[in-house]
Amino acid sequence: MNKIEKIDLPYFIDDRGVFRKFFNGEHPALKDFHIKQINQVNTIEKGVLRGLHYQTGEFAESKLFKVIKGRIQLATFCIDKDLKTFLESSSFELSETDSSILIPRGYATGYLVLEKNTEVLYCSDNIYEPTAEKGILWDDHNLKIKWLINNPILSEKDKSWEKFYVN
Ligand SMILES: Cc1cn([C@H]2C[C@H](O)[C@@H](COP(=O)(O)OP(=O)(O)O[C@H]3O[C@H](C)C(=O)[C@H](O)[C@H]3O)O2)c(=O)[nH]c1=O
């Protein structure tokens, strides 16, 4: 499991609403994804950018992102020299009717909120270890991520990250 996957699972519509399957451990891309954490993140304002973050070493995480309400631009950047996608970035615009995105270990992730009151659910296959968390400055031009909003709202932590350097 070392490439980013779009995960489409069935949903069933009837006159009561929609039943969506969010996770199926039998799905080929998910059978080796063992959930350790499920995080629900509500973001009030459009224009908030969370990331880019990654955890290192034994705390590295694969993450499964799903938009529950609203819209985001999810971006990734490969930081793992051993992956053929090293230094490649990707970007997905996602709303609640879109696929989930599975991002394996070895990628920094971040997302820009494109609608007020956006809800994101994401699962991780590792525990959160603050001392193992690292980040990359959101507008590091070397990442070649074309963010859809130029002056995002950032946490103090996300303002403090540096550019990515290949050491
Ligand atoms: C990620 C995480 C955070 N926290 C605590 C730490 C802080 O007190 C609070 C907010 O954390 P943070 O500011 O890192 O949250 P975001 O800025 O939304 O970042 C998250 O969203 C971006 C897109 C990511 O890819 C990261 O996985 C994740 O860090 O939750 C926990 O207790 N457990 C966790 O797994």
Write up what this structure looks like.
With about 170 residues, this protein is mostly beta strands. Helices cover about 5% and strands about 40% of the residues. The chain is built from one helix and twelve strands. It has one helix at about 155-160, and strands at about 5, 10-15, 15-20, 35-45, 50-55, 65-70, 70-80, 90-95, 100-105, 105-115, 120-125, 135. The strands form three sheets. It has a five-stranded antiparallel beta sheet, with no helix packed on it. A hairpin with a 2-residue loop joins strand 2 (about 10-15) and strand 3 (about 15-20). The two termini are about 25 Å apart. The model has no long low-confidence stretch (mean pLDDT about 95). Bound molecules: dTDP-4-keto-6-deoxyglucose (T46). DTDP-4-keto-6-deoxyglucose (T46) binds near residues 37 and 41. Its EC number is 5.1.3.13. This is dTDP-4-dehydrorhamnose 3,5-epimerase.
Structural class: mainly beta
Beta strands, count: 12
* Ligand list: dTDP-4-keto-6-deoxyglucose
- The whole-angstrom Rg is 16 Å
Helix tally equals 1
Indicate the low-confidence ranges by residue numbers: none
Strand content: 35-45%
Average pLDDT number: 96
Biggest sheet strand line-up: 1-9-6-11-4
Coarse shape? globular
SSE sequence, one letter per element = EEEEEEEEEEEEH
Major β-sheet profile: 5 strands, antiparallel
| Termini separation | 25 Å
Percent of residues in helices: under 10%
Catalytic activity: dTDP-4-dehydro-6-deoxy-alpha-D-glucose = dTDP-4-dehydro-beta-L-rhamnose
Pfam families: dTDP_sugar_isom (PF00908)
Enzyme class: isomerase
Function: Catalyzes the epimerization of the C3' and C5'positions of dTDP-6-deoxy-D-xylo-4-hexulose, forming dTDP-6-deoxy-L-lyxo-4-hexulose.
